[in-house]
Amino acid sequence: MVYFPAGRYLVSTSILMYYMTQCVGDATNMPTIIGSPDFVGLGVFDADPYVLGGSNWFTNQNNFYRQVRNFIIDMTQMSTSMAHGIHWQVAQATSLQNIVFNMVEGGDTNNQIGIFMDNGSANFMGDLIFNGGGQCMFMGNQQYGIRNITFNNCQTAIFQNWGWMFVYKNMVFNGCGVGLDMSNGGAATSFCCRDLMAPGSRHVLLSISSEVQYAV
After folding, report:
1. pTM of the entire predicted model
2. Distance (Å, rounded) from C-alpha 187 to C-alpha 2?
3. Which end of the chain is least crowded, N or C, by CB within 10 Å?
């Protein structure tokens, strides 16, 4: 367990998470991790870095035991051409909890992404707040439960790149351009009703949309 006391931390490259690592901030006074204007890396936190040739440090389906919780991630100084808060390519026994993502609002070329999850076989994230950004959540994984998420003034709240067995519950969209974008048509991207749990399903339960141009 790596504990972060309350405070402001300026980083210019990724905080790399090794196997079985938990990054935990003070729950009563959450630390702020600030990405610098010259930041280099795939995410402020990176759970599975890419190496030369396009391979990862870890096999994504076996990338177990990772937790990040109790942080404010400030991306407002980072480039809008490409910046990620968390690169979360993980599998079982992993979670993201109680995290606030502050990103740049607006802009025609805003490509900031709060959570970039391109692969894996994981399970849970919840109690997250996204402010601004191009895409708050880029989702590609399987067997996932996601609950209690708030999106404020982002261009696209959720981009579902692909997925298998995703459950979204208690999602709040405020002032977003698009709530849930499933236009990519990747593997298993069907949208099913709440009572059907089958491979390829998407469940959106008890969600609220406020001032959203396109909900789905």
Report:
1. 0.89
2. 36
3. N
